[in-house]
Amino acid sequence: MSNPPVELFHARLAIERLICAYAEALDAGDVVRVSGLFERGQIRINGMDVVHKGSDAVRNMFLRFTIFYDKHLNAVDPTLVRSKPWTKHLSSNLRFESLTETSAVLWSDFTVLQGLPGRELKPIVAGRYRDTFCCENGAWFFADRLEYIDLIGDVSSHLKGNPFA
Question: Nearest 5°: CA angle at 58, between 144 and 13?
Answer without folding.
Answer: 45
